[in-house]
């Protein structure tokens, strides 16, 4: 009797969340999938086209170029973001004073909105009144000074640098929390056995961070397929020149839905993006399971 009562209370507390989940996720997913099988501009009747939208997207070279930029963004952001986060966390772990100040200062970029960050870097890298090019000229590196906001190749890698600067504090705090929970006895035993700081970090500390690394890598790769803000905000800095050459999947979806009014095609593209993110999520769960085992 008590078990039934507890189950009823459990369902009573779960019901509001389940209703919201069904309306805003399940219903939206089913609606998006059904819309992806049609041709619709937002006005007039819908025309059923089946899998034509998906086939046309997979045959579109622009899709594969955008997906390639997602992959490059994800790989570089994961490698350098996690690497910088790990190094920063190790340094924080050895700091005895002002820890709260440094943690707060490091985490500040995460708190800032993408729009603020984009405007900050657009000012910093502006070729006319920015700070970077004059600094390069003063250091005798004038040959590196380019119009960062016009040159599409440099703009793409500038977006990656901005993303690393904004997101690496998350991995820093995660690694730092893992280091704080790590048994100190193992490190002390390695020091007694004659290991220096570098050997202790390599053979004792890093192996215990495998699960954390697996989680952060998977989350970083999932975010790479959903990235939108920096590419959309900075693509306007090129003055419209080659604006499609900076597209990733999310900005490509946005332009097709609200620029070209190809809502059916955009929904199919959203389904492909969902499948890609789901595949990375499954890979994350399997990797995490193997790491825990």
How do the strands and helices of this protein lay out in sequence?
Elements: H1 2-35, E1 38-39, E2 47-48, H2 52-58, H3 61-94, H4 99-111, H5 114-124, H6 132-138, H7 152-180, H8 184-192, H9 197-205, H10 210-226, H11 229-235, H12 249-258, H13 263-292
Helix pairs in contact: 3-7, 3-10, 4-7, 5-11, 7-11, 8-9, 10-13, 12-13
Structure report:
- With 293 residues, the protein is an all-alpha fold.
- The protein has one domain: MetI-like fold, CATH 1.10.3720.10.
- Helices cover 74% and strands 1% of the residues.
- The protein is built from 13 helices and 2 strands.
- A two-stranded antiparallel sheet has the order 1-2.
- A hairpin with a 7-residue loop joins strand 1 and strand 2.
- It is globular, with a radius of gyration of 24 Å.
- About 2% of the residues have low confidence.
